[in-house]
């Protein structure tokens, strides 16, 4: 259509992988880093751990992105995920203050803090996955009723999420440095993961970070967290973190449509953004 275009890159000798998906090409809001301005933000791509032989984005695509120096790419570590896309652990939402945005990170540590808090309040038997247990794969007799107490007593799950948190913290440090962020610019959203047979992480419940941002309306995967006092405690905590920024949280059920195939709301949706007021093609690196 008018004012739209695309570039097609097809590698001749390399196979395509999930790290070549567009969920693995994100861009930050405009930032200033160590005196250097990035008026169009910076490209974020996921890759393998440094010095490892893991999955990487196809070289043809990586070289194409690096050649676009105005948005100088930042390479993150995403190969610890089964799908391996950066949008599984980081996204950005607008704010009305001087910073203009917040970075959201998936956080197992924040989830465990919340669950322990609820356990201390006497809500340890609050049940997860109500109405969606079978679709989420929790229909076995031993896990039919997943409670806060059961999650907190699961040592294997705790160890797996400690590993995931270390992977996210590695990226947190990179993002703070490369985007010029402070801790106050970051919001940790409760998340849990589990490792598959290959040792790669998949979401334990729908991953709320993989949301769609429509100005100040957020389409967030419904997490089906522990219900206490008639409300999902994960939804309540996320609202408490994001609504003070003037954002509207709308939780969307995406289990059958996306989550069951290791995706979320953002994997099947797109947004047409309003262009910058200035001639962005005149920006020089």
TrEMBL record:
GO cellular component, one term: nucleus
The encoding gene: Padi2_1
GO MF terms, alphabetically ordered: calcium ion binding; histone arginine deiminase activity
Domain of life: Eukaryota
Protein's recorded name: PADI2 deiminase
A family per Pfam: PAD
Species whose genome carries this gene: Gymnorhina tibicen (Australian magpie)
InterPro entries membership: PAD (IPR004303), PAD_C (IPR013530)
Annotated ranges, domain Protein-arginine deiminase C-terminal: 1-282
């Amino acid at each position: 259509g008018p004012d739209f275009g695309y570039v097609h890159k097809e590698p001749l000798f390399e196979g395509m992988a999930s790290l070549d998906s567009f969920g693995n090409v994100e861009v930050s809001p405009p930032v200033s880093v160590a005196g250097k301005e990035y008026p169009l933000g910076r490209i974020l791509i996921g890759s393998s751990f440094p010095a490892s032989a893991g999955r990487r984005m196809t070289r043809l695509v990586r070289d194409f992105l690096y050649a676009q120096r105005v948005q100088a790419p930042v390479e993150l570590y995403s190969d610890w995920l089964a799908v391996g896309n950066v949008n599984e652990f980081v996204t950005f939402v607008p704010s009305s203050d001087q910073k203009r945005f917040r970075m959201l990170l998936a956080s197992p540590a924040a989830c465990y803090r919340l669950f322990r808090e609820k356990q201390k309040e006497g809500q340890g038997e609050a049940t997860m996955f109500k109405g969606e247990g079978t679709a989420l794969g929790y229909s076995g007799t031993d896990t039919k009723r997943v409670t806060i107490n059961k999650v907190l007593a699961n040592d294997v799950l705790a160890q797996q999420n400690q590993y995931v948190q270390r992977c996210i913290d590695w990226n947190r440090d990179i993002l703070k440095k490369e985007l010029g962020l402070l801790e106050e610019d970051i919001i940790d959203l409760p998340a849990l993961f589990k490792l598959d047979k290959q040792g790669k992480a998949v979401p334990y419940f729908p991953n709320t970070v993989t949301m769609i941002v429509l100005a100040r309306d957020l389409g967030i995967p419904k997490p089906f967290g522990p219900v206490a006092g008639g409300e999902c405690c994960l939804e309540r905590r996320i609202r408490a973190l994001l609504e003070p920024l003037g954002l509207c949280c709308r939780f969307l059920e995406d289990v059958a449509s996306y989550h069951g195939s290791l995706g979320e709301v953002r994997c099947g949706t797109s947004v047409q953004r309003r262009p910058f007021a200035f001639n962005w093609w005149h920006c020089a690196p």
